[in-house]
Design a protein that fits this description.
single chain, alpha+beta, Beta-lactamase, seven-stranded antiparallel β-sheet, 13 helices
């Protein structure tokens, strides 16, 4: 492992935006990009954190946590939407590495109620790589049903797939939380949130929750919705759910049983598809053991980095996607001919997950780097927008220059 000398400096920002935290020598360009996001890209409140070779080299936060002018503080947290899926996947791979979950076995061995009819041949691996076809619920979910774990697992087990399982992949927008989260519960004997807290977040000293206790609610910065401008150009996914409420995208977006929104009820629920709450430090820390090769065996880590499924047109997102078992991999769609350029600009060998609106957490074991970025102003992109992409690019540039 390479070593380098570094020092930290506090409050480096110009007077117009007060940046808090620390940045190590050689990583100052990331601080500058963070400042630029506030000046030029409409950032409201946010945090960014990077660990490199086992050390925290960037830990910054700035802006406001609410419309009343309260600051985004060191311990401010926010809903990170689908970054939560990465946490669920970490739990699944940890259980697999311990021999408690066989990712190559038929899912019927651990969840027989799920494997019926067209889903009879589904494997646990398919539960993680978005190929089961259970990407949305056709029939309306009762109001508040998303907060009833057993009910939602029964519903997802009974759901008929939207395509023959294994024949294509389509992002499981919210259903992933029950499709994959129930594997954690059955393999560990603990709820998803409990297992994640006790076995993943706590050992990493990560302030990352899937099910936030009420006594922690005061720290949550509520998300600010994206407000489109006149003549805004939307992604194919957005156009699809706006055009057809009963189509795959429309049902996935609208039919969530109350899991849509940003409320104390959502914060407290164990919503593995998109209800996790943390900040950049929490994301960077939870991925740090993976970046160092300390989280699971090398064989299991390889499964987290290898491509499990890739397509030119994801059945849900309607753009090219690449996944390992539970994680997003590098997706470069900037030259995509369909006009949707949403991307995930991590490098080959890295893995993690983005969250709707722009957040990201990932590990790059080849560099020993982990990173988190969390904000409260949602962007319009399905994947990353210019704020997160810029931060990731600069983080890699800084890592490449470290002696």
């Amino acid at each position: 492992m390479r070593r380098h000398n570094c020092s930290s400096r506090d409050n480096l920002a110009p007077m117009s935006v007060e940046i808090h935290g620390t940045v190590s020598e050689g990583w100052e360009p990331l601080h500058e990009k963070f400042v630029s996001n506030f000046h030029h890209l409409g950032e409201f409140g946010a945090s960014v954190c990077v660990t490199f070779e086992g050390r925290t080299v960037v830990d910054l936060w700035a802006g406001e946590s609410d419309t009343e002018g309260n600051p985004w503080s060191e311990d401010t947290i926010a809903v990170v939407n689908s970054c939560t899926k990465g946490g669920v996947a970490l739990a699944c791979h940890l259980l697999a590495d311990r021999g408690l979950l066989d990712l190559d076995a038929p899912v019927s061995e651990i969840w027989p109620e799920f494997a019926h009819g067209a889903k009879e041949s589904v494997t646990t691996r398919m539960m993680l790589n978005h190929t089961t076809g259970v990407a949305a619920f056709r029939e309306d979910l009762p109001k508040g049903s998303a907060f009833d774990w057993d009910y939602m697992c029964d519903r997802v087990a009974a759901e008929e797939p939207w395509w023959p399982p294994g024949t294509r992949n389509g992002y499981h927008l919210m259903s992933f939380g029950w499709v994959a989260g129930e594997l954690v519960r059955r393999a560990s004997g603990r709820s998803l949130g409990t297992f994640f807290k006790e076995e993943v977040a706590n050992p990493a000293n990560a302030d990352f929750w899937i099910g936030l206790p009420p006594q922690e609610h005061h720290r949550v910065s509520e998300l600010r919705p994206f407000n489109p401008q006149p003549e805004e150009k939307f992604s194919a996914f957005t156009r699809a759910f706006l055009a057809d409420p009963d189509g795959l995208q429309g049902r996935a977006w609208r039919n969530r049983g109350g899991a849509k929104g940003d409320s104390p009820e959502v914060w407290s629920a164990e919503l593995g598809g998109g209800g996790g709450i943390t900040n950049a430090r929490g994301l960077a820390r939870v991925y740090q053991p993976c970046a160092l090769g300390d989280f699971v065996s090398s064989a299991q880590l390889k499964r987290m980095t290898d491509v499990s499924v890739a397509t030119e047109c994801d059945a849900m997102l309607l753009l090219p996607t690449r996944f390992s078992e539970g994680f997003m991999l590098r997706m470069d769609n900037h030259s995509s001919p369909n006009g949707d350029h949403d991307s995930v600009n991590i490098r080959e060998g890295a893995f993690g997950h983005v969250g709707a609106g722009g957040s990201i957490g990932f590990a790059d074991p080849r560099l020993g780097l982990s990173m988190g970025y969390v904000m409260n102003q949602l962007g319009k992109s399905v994947l990353l927008d210019a704020r997160g992409e810029g931060l990731v690019d600069v983080a890699y540039q800084c890592a490449d220059k470290c002696p």
